[in-house]
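Supplementary Text 2. Reproducibility record for the structural model of the 962-residue chain.

All settings were left at their defaults, and a single model was retained for analysis rather than an ensemble. We include the record here because the model underlies the residue-level annotations in Supplementary Table 4.
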Amino acid sequence: MRIRASLMAGICAGAIAVPAYAQDADTDEPTLGETSGPVIVVTAQRQAQSLQEVPIAVSAFSAETLEAQQIENASDLQLTLPNVSFTKSNFTASSFTIRGIGDLCVGVSCDSATAIHLNSAPLFGTRLFETEYFDLEQIEVLRGPQGTLFGRNATSGVVNVITAKPDLSGFGARAEFEYGNFNSIKAKGMVNVPVGDSIGVRVAGFYLKRDGYTTNLFNGDDIDGRDMYAIRGSLRFEPGPDTTIDLMGYYFRENDDRLRIQKQQCQRDPTGVLGCLNNRRDFDKTNSNSTFTGTLGSNEFLAINGIPSALGLNSLYGPDAYANFNEPNDVRTVNTQFTPEYFSDELQLQAHIEHDFGGISIGVTGTYQETSVDSRQDYNLGVGQIPNAAVAFGTLNAFAAGAAGPGTGVYFTPITDALFSGGDLCVSDTRLDNRGAFEGFRVCTPDGTQFDRSNQENESFSVEAIISSDFDGPFNFLLGGVYAESKVLENSYYVNAFAIDYIAGVLGSFTSLGGGLPPSYLATSFFRNNTQSFELESYGIFAEAYVDITDRLSLTAGIRYNDDSKAITARSTLASFLNPYSNDGDPFASPFAGTFDADPGTAGNQAIQARQVGFNEITGRFVLNYEISPDNLIYASYSRGYKSGGINPPLQPIFAVPDSFGPESIDAFEIGSKNTFANGALQLNLTAFYYKYADLQLSRIIARTSVNDTIDAKVWGLELESIIRPDPAWMINMNFSYLNAEVDGDQFFSNPRDPGGGDASAVIIKDITNGALCAVTGGGANAFVNAINPGLGLQGTAPFPADGNIASNGAFSICSVLDAQATAIGAAFGGVQVLSPGVQVNLRGNKLPQAPEMKASAGIQYTKDFDNGWSLVPRFDVAFTGEQYGNVFNGRVNRLEPFVQANAQIQLNGPDGKWFVRGFVQNLFDSDSVTGLYVTDASSGLFSNIFTLDPRRYGIAAGINF
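Retained model, structure tokens:
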């Protein structure tokens, strides 16, 4: 195993590697009959080894490979990797899915299924997937559990980003400039300076600015642009031949109008009970009568509560705010009054020291991170109109003038003062101190916009130490330990809308007037799910032994102990308690804040919900690999993966969901073969795997909040990676994968899109007190609802459209009232039951989300060398991603269509690679490729947020090397 010294010199690795466009002057091109291309070196087993000798499914991309295949970020990275997919997700996050397992768990206490590492050290909440790749040594993607080698034992795999280190051998510099459509300007550069014989300094960075991909019809502006930069400084110190010290500092910043959510789709429900139906995703808007604001702001709800119905913004049975809205039939066109705002930044500091004691090497790495992200955009990506505006606003003005009696105007003038400004309607701003429009902080637009905000601030550090051997004999080992702390300093998700402020004011004013209390509104006058703090403390101890049983047969055995502790404080508020209009400070300083209970699971009223959980587990792996010949290897492995559980956020309204969710574990079996044929002209790697998952974590929306459950699953698949070099001028790479990832055994959950669960006798109820859904079941469910609703001033049950894929009837009602009446008189209707949030259905056999059944990619490159030392290199890449689903309930409405992405470029290189000029096209066919979706809550109308790849881009680039 003493290969480290010889292989370290060859770390110019590709993946399965695409060679650099321009060869160094002293590097000979391989000829037919010789080994083609450089040795591909990876650190998948925490030491430098040839890719073809590592018994792990791993792909590696050099800097040259990334450039050749136009891989500029994580979204591009998925296109060439077997059984790997990537998508943005709803709350300023992303999901990197490997072999059907990604970040299906949503929440600050969730661990990532795919571990992201920087120079082999774990990262937490990183924004690396928003930035552009620059000045990297390589990227390695390891598929399958890697707990005995990397980080915190992620279950799906590891993405290891390895930065370029200073070169002590001489000065070097590189600069590149690119201009493309959308007025895209990008610059990248690097300077490498040796300081004496033992110190080297390297500084690199990039800057990108472009116009938006998306047209806003409201004002004609382009949105979803980019304005970002990053800089990285590195220092390498070699005080002696056996010691290396690396220091690195990195800063990234983005401040632009990026769209967190590209588009919303909905098969509009004319009844308003669901908002969106269950059969397909159209370019249409949800029926806003189904939303929280549509129910609480309705004539009917106000009348039930003894408030004049004329103050209602709409009727449950009349036109809704989007009845006349025309949704553009294009993912790149929206109509919004609120211009998106997006900010993120990240600081990384890292130090690594390694010393070689001969046969023993010791390395220690410390990493510190600060990350933040803050995003606001139109919640519905549309412009709504208030159906009953004229009557409602006229009535409110009458009450402000004292219509309720002498001296009562003071209860209503704060509403008109806060929510109206000339001809504009005003909405509470999103502030960390919870103050909004009634405290003087507002956003005013002609139609009263609605928008959300997602923000988070993190601080993390980790220390890892590894001792490894490089003996001449048959036995070697690796022993390591890692300790990490990560803190969420602030995390919030807000939803703000004119109707929420209006309802909070009207209900609060009538409540306080009726109770003889000071004029008050209901705070907070916006939805805010707020994690005030989250702390993770984690450590792991791991070891591997490597035994050469014979000259050809080797054994690897690894073990790991994991320990994770998590603590969280959080609360969720929306019109939760009275707050006097006179209190212009923190709403929680209200004399009535004590009526608010953030934690109904604990006796008494709690201002916050506080939870702690802890998990520990022993995992390991066992590998046998056999060298058939120096160019052919087969291996078989078993590994046990583990990911710790977490804490569910507080819900509002309260539903019966667990406070926490348990850890997930995986038994992973894999066989593989790595082969080089025809003296290097063909490289062919094959892998087959089978996973048995227990308690796989996945998220669903309940009561406006993502909560996490666990299910069992089984996953199996095949992967092929190949490089063909028929002669030195041609290079062809082809990858293929097949994946079957499905729910295993009987797993019962309520489908938020169809709370009736396909039961034709059930009635789906829209609860007008909170916008949530429940289902009334039993043979007499329709008769029961029709008997109760008239007493509430509500209509009876009605069918959904025939093409909606909803078997049940629906109705507006109050779930708690129906539940109480079911207990009292349900027997008279044959026995009925009220289920919240709905009827559970069996998910057995359903496909896991973001798990394309089939993926294939191919690239072809030709190099034409000229006598003057110039070369011309055209290249074409195409990638196919097959059918997948956006969530575990599957069905046509959640299906993501297959898509094809193609890139092409041609590059002219100068002598010795000193300069180049390149023309490029990305997404050649201008495909609107949808990579993921997120189904919103019932109180939002069940529309689908979709996430797409970028549209067609083209341009020219030029660069120079010194």
